[in-house]
Specification:
Strands 1-2 form a two-stranded antiparallel ribbon. It is α+β, with helices and mostly antiparallel strands. It contains three helices and two strands; from the N terminus they run H-H-H-E-E.
Amino acid sequence: MGVKPEEYFIESEPYYEPVGNEITVFEAAYNNRLPVLLKGPTGCGKTRFMEHMAWRLKRPLITVSCHDDLTASDLVGRYLVAGGETVWVD
């Protein structure tokens, strides 16, 4: 069971009003294969910006809501003991 990228494309243009040169900066990072970190309070537009950029660049988008207690194993999986067996859980 794998992720099907075609299920994660943004079909219609999300409304986004740039407030600076963030689109140009993001596109430069994307074109140079550089990572981008978006940080800000709830509701400031991080997800909307990413939806807009995914649509603009014709790329699939999978979002993860992060929080203070989020661990790396929450994102990539971990081994757990279940029913006397050790199993990998995504």
